[in-house]
Amino acid sequence: MSPLLDVRDLVKTYGEGEAETRVLKGLNLRLETGELSALLGPSGSGKSTLLTILGTLMKPSSGQHVMLGEDLTKASDKDLTEFRNRHIGFVFQFHHLLPDFTALENVVFPSAVQSGRETAAARKRGQELLARVGLEHRMDFLATKLSGGQKQRVAIARALMNKPELVLADEPTGNLDRESATQVMDLIAEINQNEKTTFLISTHDEKIADTCRRQIRVMDGKAD
Amino acid sequence: MLYGLKIALRYLTASKSQTGLLIAGVAVGVFVFIFMSALIGGLAVFLVQRTVGDIAHVTIEAPARDAVSLLTESTGALVVQQRATGQRATLRTADAFLPLIEAMPGVTATSPQIVGNGFLVRGLATAPVGVTGVETAKVSAIANISKALVSGTTDLANSSIIIGATLASDLGIGVGQVVRLQSDRGVERPLVVSGIFELGVEALDARAAFVGLSTARTLFDLPQGISRIEIKLDNLNQAEAYATRIAAETGLKATPWTEGNAQLLDGLRAQASSGDLIKAFALITIVIGVASALLLSTYRRRPEIGIMRAMGAGRGFVIFVFVTQGALIGILGGLIGAGLGYAALSPFPVPELAPPGGLPVDVRQGAYGLAISLTAIGAILASILPARAAARVDPVSVIGQ
Known about the structure:
By secondary structure, chain A is an alpha/beta fold. Chain A has one domain: P-loop containing nucleotide triphosphate hydrolases (Rossmann fold). Chain A contains 7 helices and 10 strands. Chain A is globular and about 50 Å long. Chain B is α+β, with helices and mostly antiparallel strands. Chain B has 2 domains: 186 residues, no CATH class; 137 residues, no CATH class. In chain B, strands 4-5-10-7-9-8 form a 6-stranded mixed β-barrel. Chain B contains 13 helices and 12 strands. At the A-B interface, helix 2 and helix 3 of A face helix 1, helix 10 and helix 13 of B.
């Protein structure tokens, strides 16, 4: 059975000539469906660059990036945008919700932008997701009216909207207090357990990493 | 694309004061556009009305008889018939085609006339005069003599004459008094002044006289036919087209009023060009205003655009959102500006009825549809640059902020 994600000899360099910096130096990584993995490593090790490439927001300088059997290194910007929308969810450290939209509208966004309108089915799934992250009473609140923990839970619900195979989380608890961080990680673990959604969580926090079944360490541009 | 419209609307309503100011700016630009259209158009109507209102829009005359070779070229053209200087071209078949012209849509009045020159004599005073013989009922068909009367009536029966106020003053005569008219054909008749008019055009007030058609036949020795037919149209801008059509249908010489008023037309064209320039500047102001405001909005919303792109929004979607904002601003500003323009112009009387010294704006010439359409198109074009800038936002560069 083919893996969900398979990257081989991934290289990413920034700049040119003397200013050239090689961040990823032939990184290899495989993720199977249903994994809950932590991505660990010091600052500058290439974690964020790796997540950005895996999220199809950036192309590697060389190497192979295959997900769901598709070679994404050769895809056009338009194809990558569609692929990202259908198969990948994001949770960022600073949640990055749309401030002029309600919690429900933020959650529904990935579906609405795909179909061109907010369908009733999408709104129903959005409501279910918000209920699942414990925010059924905050659906119609503007994003700016929510607390930090609530915003992050809305961001998780948004990441799950299109039922993606892979959710990439970049320091999802980095900006939260310990209690909120525990709640968010419990939520991620529950969703992973029940829906077999694959999570790859970048973190500095060993305690957070310990809640994941697999720890991947990135050191000097390579994964162990 | 319904969802793109929703996002565009949300962005506009999220910054109410900024959007309000932007729409107000566009509305002011549209107001200026509409006011200038109404003013330039009204001024043109006013000038034409004042200048051309009392003359014929099309004049039909018999074609001039040019010199003609009497022998064919093969036999040698030795003898020609020269045009006699005293020869008068007359319309002998006017009765046949007059109903045809009167039946044309757009023709509001016709006036068959006999014209000639002569001298008005009273005692020792003599004044040259251009005499127009008209049907009694059509004395005011071309120049509105009835409205311009300062004394007497327009009755031309029983050897009457109507003269201009300056002429009456020069000769020292008034209504009811008798004056002798000597025509250039050597005929002299005593006539009673039945009315005195003042059109405000010196050439007419000092030199024009109207007599009945039968009196003119006697004075100018013209027992049959007429000199010309003057025609008025409901739209004097169509004069050239009507003249061409009448000439084609009757074979007669038809002259539009524009042929003798080239300087007025040049002036009107220059005036229209100035108005177009001002309107163009108003549109350019709108375009620059919308473009700069949307560029600022693009910069302010860079993080959100990045997130949308990360969530799967294509570049086309982002462009649509910003172009739609431009279109909405243009349409709303255009509608408000047009409404304000109409409301501001409505109290003004139309130029035809404008009092002396009044502002000759014409509410009918506000070009409302054109103003709204051009503004919407201008705003859409103005939004393309910011929209393209928004679509180029790199999600990676803003997500980390």
